[in-house]
TrEMBL record:
Signal peptide: none annotated. Gene3D superfamilies: 3.40.190.290, Winged helix-like DNA-binding domain superfamily/Winged helix DNA-binding domain. This is DNA-binding transcriptional regulator, LysR family. Pfam families: HTH_1, LysR_substrate. Belongs to the LysR transcriptional regulatory family. It comes from Pseudomonas moorei. Keywords: DNA-binding, Transcription, Transcription regulation. The keyword Metal-binding does not apply. InterPro entries: LysR-type_TF_proteobact-type, LysR_HTH_N, LysR_subst-bd, WH-like_DNA-bd_sf, WH_DNA-bd_sf. GO terms for molecular function: DNA-binding transcription factor activity; sequence-specific DNA binding.
Amino acid sequence: MNRLESMSVLIAVVDSGSLSGAARQLGMPLATVSRKVAELESHLQTRLLHRTTRQLSLTEAGASYVAACRRILEDIAEVERAATGEYASPKGELVVTAPVVFGRLHLVPVIAEFLAHYPEIEINLMLTDRVVHLMEEHCDVAVRIGDLPDSSLMATQVGAVRRVVCASPDYLATHGIPFKPADLAGHACITFEVLASVGAWVFETGKSEVSVRVHSRLAVNTAEAAIDAAMLGVGVIRVLSYQVADALRKDALRVVLEPFESLPLPVSLVHKGQAPLPLKLRAFLDFVTPRLRARTAGQAAPGERVSL
């Protein structure tokens, strides 16, 4: 039995949620996937997976074993990267993740420039608004927006963005301009999940934060949909400043309640901080950091705050 291969198969089963999903992911016959997992359990003399007709789940022993397998396989991959020269010259693949709109507007142009400078580096870019787990999903670097929890990850702040409240000129002409957060009680609002803004919006006064309940006429799951609806006059939205920069330039949306905006959110580049740092990653961080700082400059400067 090739234990390293069996470990990789087991992780694929866990990540995909099924034996058949792992078989598709690995390009391996289903019977082979099932046999390799069974051989691993026989070798360990313990059950790693609970099997039902609908789903698979890890046993307690399986959970700790899979976590150890991930560490072992990552260590091996690190040794192989060193052996192939990734620590001698900047080459190889980088897996990068970022929020969808930020990635499209800011990161893709910078990456295009980076690739022109480093012809021996390839980048796999994942644009998603969910938080990607760097260790479990083998991701090298992530753009994160918001305050970061304490962890072993290394982070470099490259900017900050505002949370702005906007509406279309036609909507404001029909329904009036809200001049203080409490005025939102009389307005239709568009909410979406990413900013956790479905029930209430938080504003900053000269003294403290204030949470305001909003009436959600339309709830969506992406910022793009919320912005499109706002431009059509459906209601008021609360989004990140870079997401509506183009709409503001075209006067399709206008910012309201600017003196009450909550504090800007940091934009950070996050990586696992392994030592020594592969040259491909060092080259990427050194190249991208100043360029993202330049692109986000000025996006964290709201108007003067006022007290209620």
